Amino acid sequence: MYAPNNFKQTDIRELIAIMREYPFATLITHSISGIEANHLPVTIVESDGGMAIHAHIAKANKLWQSVEQGADVLLIFNGPNCYVSPNYYPTKKENGRAVPTWNYVVVHVKGNISFIHDEQWVYRMLDTLTKEHEAEQISPWSITDAPVEYIDKMLSAIVGIEISIDEIEGKWKLSQNQPDVNKLGVMQRLIENGQAQQVKISELINDLQ
Predict the structure, then answer these.
(1) At 209, is the pLDDT very low, low, confident or very high (cuts 50, 70, 90)?
(2) Which CATH code fits 5-177?
(3) Are 67 and 31 within 8 A, CB to CB?
(4) Which of 63, 84, 198, 205 has the maximal Cβ count within 10 Å?
């Protein structure tokens, strides 16, 4: 990933925070079948031994057959992003020197993939994933809410994924290359526009001040 120094994010806490806030990741793999992208909800596991990503795919997805155990893979976590118009820059009125751009936050994770067929492992992973995403529900759904025989049938149709993390890199492109007056202009206009992604980008720009 191309990331000029002023756009690089090296704070591991910030990187993990984005991964947790935007856990629907894109998994990029390469095999004899070529380059492939799969989109997966993931959970992040931290331990004394390091960090790993847990996820799952349908057994009908031939990824687990085409990609070798231990193969290098890339996961992309796309955070908030939005278009930035030249009209947001006060300096445009002075000299016209402005072009459109896109502000965004993204995290790339490189690691080695393993496919897991142990149904107990898969059950624990799904239970963790479900609890994370049901936490804000008024009445959180649990795997135990469904009939045992139904869950057993579902488990037999799933393959677990574990990615041991080797490298995490982030890019926070948040108008750092603009003078303060333009940063303020971007923040103000994004807030005025009111869309969730734009407001989030405005907040992140402010955090860098």
Answers:
(1) confident
(2) 2.30.110.10
(3) yes
(4) 84
